[in-house]
Amino acid sequence: MNDSLLTHEPMIRGTVFALVLLAMVGWEVAARRRPQEILRRKRWPGNLLIVALDTLAVRLVFPLAAVGAALIASEQGWGLFNRVTAPAWLAVLASVVALDLAIYFQHRLFHAVPWLWRLHRMHHADLEFDVTTGLRFHPLEVMISMGIKLLVVAVLGAPAVAVLIFEVLLNATSMFNHGNVRLPVRIDRWLRLLVVTPDMHRVHHSIVRRETDSNFGFNLPWWDRLFGTYRDQPAAGHLDMTIGIEDFRNVHDLRLDRMLIQPFLSPRRQTKRKRL
């Protein structure tokens, strides 16, 4: 069972990734939330290539990834759920929730520590907000994030199936909550009690820093309410808010090469955007 899970993990994750990406692209075409000034052909090549680089980097540096770490922890008896007796369903559920809480605090850490923010700001420097924004993370950030995740998995003794469920959910919800999709207000109001919705997470991508430093959740929405970082709506409204950060606002910053070196560049103020 364990060997089978490890063998099929890339296929499971890849299949769900492709299905959710295609579904979100179709949704964005059918029910767009915001008009987009920058054409997809200027943004999507970099955003899609960066996720390919991220995947390659993780597989090279962490060949077994988080599921493999869970299997090793189980074999060695490391972590809470490998030392206490608990129903399997409870261990899986508690591990998924605990991992999500860890990602929430990790996200806050990447905003609070200057050198980590230099890595994470590449995600926020996208000049539009759509499903591919949810894939846009610097490879160094992804590897640091994986290192933190491996540590949390080992401390928890999380079951391998729980780690796989969490990884699939996190990837899928990241694409969902970055979607440029329209939801009826009533549905959004109720849905954001269970999962981070696009309107909830879009606030986090506002150019206004107090809004950027809110709504840190990717999957479960409860942590922002519990820890006082929840913001219901952007001050300017979803149609008039400005996406991104004050620096790196030229279209050429959306190229893959510029994205990769961005953490090592000094911030600059740009009052005019290059013509599209």
From TrEMBL:
Membrane-spanning parts: 12-30, 51-74, 86-105, 150-170
Domain Fatty acid hydroxylase, first and last residues per copy: 93-229
Protein's UniProt keywords contain DNA repair: no
Pfam families per record: FA_hydroxylase (PF04116)
Location (main, coarse): membrane
Location(s) in or outside the cell: Membrane
Keyword Cell membrane: no
Gene Ontology CC: one annotated term: membrane
Domain of life assignment: Bacteria
GO biological process, one term: lipid biosynthetic process
Positions in coiled-coil regions: none
Stored InterPro entries: Fatty_acid_hydroxylase, Sterol_Desaturase_Related
UniProt keyword list: Membrane, Transmembrane, Transmembrane helix
Molecular function in Gene Ontology: iron ion binding; oxidoreductase activity
Name of the protein in its database record: Sterol desaturase/sphingolipid hydroxylase, fatty acid hydroxylase superfamily
